[in-house]
Amino acid sequence: MDNQFNQPLASLSPSNGQAIEGQYIVVFKNQASQMSASQDLKASKVSALRIREDVLAKAKLKASEVQQVYEGAVSGFAAKLSAEQVNELRRNPNVAYVEQDRIIALSPSWKDTGIATKGGGKGSTDTTTKGGGKGNGKGQTDPTPTEPAPTDSTTTAPAPTEPAPADSTVTDPTPTDSTSIEPTPTEPAAAYAAITPLEGETVAWNIERVGYGDGTGKTVWIIDSGVDTDHPDLNVDVARSYSFIYGNPSIEDGYGHGTSVAGIVAAKNNGSGMIGVAANATVVALRVFDDAGAGSVSRAISAVNYVINNAKAGDVVNMSLGSGISTTLDQAVQDAAAKGILFSLAAGNSNVDCSGTSPARVNAPGVYTISAMDSYNALWASSNFGAGVDFAAPGVGVTATTKNGSIAGGMYGTSMATPHVAGILLLRGEVLSQGYVTGDKDTTPDPIASLD
């Protein structure tokens, strides 16, 4: 118990959440009410195209300058715009609103150092540091995106040019060792398929803490840095996976973060490596971060739109990411959840109330925001908090899959906590709890997520 409160701090990317100068997300008004009931999907798309062409013409914006096109629940586009173009678009009767795009950047430290990897796969080891869902290894600097300006309007926004980083050092609050509160008993949940780990499987403490079962036939959509498609512990649906990075259609995880998230949710019960919460589930990789861990809100919106158009009710989406407030991203998540698609969202790693973070601040049925705790049930020092948090899950010193085909311990952050709940949602469609965290920073301790 000596190290109960000796928790790692997230080395947060100071660029995360900052506005991207001159880059905007333009959202059209909902055209559904303007179309007759007899119009089919093809006709509605033709109508939307005409509206987009008219909006672009009035703003003197070429189609080749559009960085992303949104079709579906969110209709509109993302582009570099001048002040005059922004003003013209805001006056256009077909435009609901215009908001500035923001950086989503993973931090350079999300593992503890010196943790040897284990398991099958490609045989290499990974001893860099992870946690908080934010990084690409110890001692690295914040990623500076260098992608060329896109010309394919059906792909995604280019990675932004970072403003000068602000000082966002996170301080470790004085922990309070409060007595754990027993939760109010809940009604029995629907049954799930139990599973017996095969000989040779690693059942990490973090998986044991929340519980596990057989997720065969179920689908989780991982909006992240891609996934190692050759990982022996993952079932990856390559056909439905997609990269939203301009000039790089590969869904391969060059950063490592998405692979770790995927394994916590769905690592296979195959006699090697580790077992995930919803073992054997199918993983669909939606890549929004490049090899440096850089992305944008506009890409995340495209990924959620893709989910709305391709996922089904009962599927689960894991979003171990977050940025400043984005009305468009929040609305996209709510629109998807309204179709019965479930979401597990990272609360964030800035030691602040998550009410200022999208999509963590979304409060809607089927949407769960997750804080991080350690093995002693204490809230992680850098975890965001607040009324928007629904559950806490293991996020300090956890074991997960790595992009080299192996597994590793020592990972931490709310983005490592989030996939535990995604796995529970795959198996049950809801989340139960066993106990509450200690040391919460708001007035209500977070219930600890559990399968049973």
TrEMBL record:
Residues annotated as domain Peptidase S8/S53: 215-427
The GO annotation for biological process reads: proteolysis
What are the residue boundaries of the Inhibitor I9 domain, all occurrences included? 23-106
What keywords tag this UniProt record? Answer: Hydrolase, Protease, Serine protease
Q: Which parts pass through the membrane?
A: none
Give the signal peptide range: none
The residue ranges flagged as biased composition, category Low complexity, are 139-187
- Active site located where? D224, H257, S415
The UniProt entry, under Gene3D superfamilies, shows: Peptidase S8 propeptide/proteinase inhibitor I9, Peptidase S8/S53 domain
Annotated GO CC locations: extracellular space
Asked whether the keyword Protease is assigned, the reply is yes
Sample GO molecular function, one term = serine-type endopeptidase activity
Q: Where is this region: Disordered?
A: 111-187
Q: Which family does it belong to?
A: Belongs to the peptidase S8 family.
The protein here is known as Aqualysin 1
